[in-house]
Design goal:
- The structure is a single chain.
- This protein has 141 residues and is mainly alpha-helical.
- Helix content is 94%, strand content 0%.
């Protein structure tokens, strides 16, 4: 059976001394390491949160920049297209005017050539009619 004597108090004292020594040697360093690790993990989580928010802001700014760049590019494209249409109209207008001038000049040349041909034909028609009459009549006129 179990008997209570002075060895029980020695065992209790031994247990308390062992508990004190284990606390100094083992438990306190482990608790310090765990607290230090917890602080580091907390700092890492905080910096991760900061980086995530910066990343989200950067992504949002990038998307806004892309939208702005697309709008500016579209506006510039439309402006250039408008300028191109205006330049095309002016080129077509000048080409049309030049073509009309050449057509008018050609018409004048044709009219002049026709007039010259008529004058020439009138001169030659008198000669031809005289020759024809001579051949038909068989005598000279």
């Amino acid at each position: 059976m179990l008997s209570v004597d002075y060895t029980l108090f020695i065992q209790i004292a031994n247990f308390l001394v062992l508990l004190f020594i284990l606390n100094l040697v083992l438990y306190k360093p482990i608790r310090k390491i765990l607290l230090k690790r917890k602080a580091e993990v907390g700092a890492y989580e905080e910096s991760i949160g900061e980086y995530e928010s910066k990343s989200e802001e950067g992504s949002k700014e990038f998307k806004e920049g892309m939208i702005t760049a697309r709008k500016e590019g579209f506006q510039e494209k439309e402006g250039l297209k408008g300028k191109g249409v205006e330049e095309e109209k002016s080129l077509i207008g000048s080409a049309t005017a030049s073509a009309l001038e050449k057509i008018d000049e050609a018409k004048k040349n044709i009219d002049q050539t026709i007039q010259e041909a008529w004058v020439g034909l009138e001169k030659e028609s008198a000669t031809f009619s005289k020759e024809l009459a001579e051949k038909i009549l068989g005598r000279s006129l």
